[in-house]
Amino acid sequence: MGKVVCPWDLITNFVTDAFIGYGVPEEDAKICTDILLESDKRGIESHGCNRFKPIYLDRIKAGIQNPVTNFEIVKETPCTAVVDGHDGMGQVIGYKAMQMAIDKAKQYGMGMVAVRNSCHYGIAGYYTTMATKQGCIGMTGTNARPSVAPTFGVEGMFGTNPLTVGIPTDEAFDFNIDCATSITQNGKIEYYERIGEEVHPGTIIGIDGEPIEGDAGVALKKIRNGTAALTTLGGIGEELGGYKGYGYAMIIELLSAVLQDGEYGKALNGKDENGNLCPYHLGHFFIAIDTGHFVGEEETRKKAGEILRTVRASKKQPGCDRIYTAGEKEYEIWQQRKDSGVPINESVQKEILEIRDELGLTQYKFPWE
Fold first, then answer.
1. Which of helix, strand or coil describes residue 318?
2. How far apart are CA 338 and CA 356, in angstroms?
3. How far apart are CA 203 and CA 220, in angstroms?
4. In a 3-state reduction of DSSP, which class is residue 22?
5. Which of helix, strand or coil describes residue 110?
6. Of 116, 228, 253, 293, which residue is 20 to 30 A from 156 by alpha carbon distance?
7. Angle at alpha carbon of residue 332, lines to 326 and 335, rounded to 5°
8. Which one-letter DSSP state was computed for residue 271?
């Protein structure tokens, strides 16, 4: 389907006003917008405008996500905190929790904040970038609705559970690895459905143990009704190391639940015992390590950049002229898009017009009209 580029200032103002129209306070709306659009700026379109309506606005409308966020500190020490988000806006909870971890790290060297009862917090890499910009190493992870099967299993028992780490460098972009512990994620399958792309072989396993292929919409329905599940990094079985992805996914599941006494697994499917919609009650964790408490920010950035440049300068595979390090491709996409805008597919174009008309935001005119 055709995409149309929408200028950054136009989409930023519209998304912010739409969040406000749905009851999100202005300052919180700006945070939500910044995190949402950062995904599109990095080329991660599965988590940007593509998810604006179905993941955030629709959940507010359904009453399973609170537009006004109650960020409650349940327990706090100089280096740690436990936070209850009371099913508020995940981006606001994540932003405040990460900054709290950074502030603690700046004072004591390290800080960690564990969160319970949150909602989808957008791209995890946003929070690790918050840390690297402030001279810290940042780490975060989150559990999610159960859609990924353990090795030798066919039932979705945990989420796509991203493991995300950011390390400051002396380059134009910091090292920032932000990826699911499954081969692909629900947002990517949703995106494939929108653009008419088939699912990639080996990424989904059926209840019969066989790989699911073909139409992404059909595959998504099977995941939702429990007759299929995403596979962990390494794929089906142990031959290509599926047990490694499974192990890392479990680390994120544990850190997103045990330190904050949060929900996990099947309790995160967004349905109550009667099948009615209910809040997701997600858990997150945020870790910051201040480089100033070690050899210092300047030396850390210099050494990290040196290591990355050494790796990129190593021998290339035949037919390949570049080796990339995490964060490099996203930086280059931003350089390509910063003066133009975000490409929006036809499905999301329609949703944006529907939101505009619903909220009476008639001052907004879009390039695809």
1. coil
2. 24
3. 12
4. coil
5. strand
6. 116
7. 145
8. B
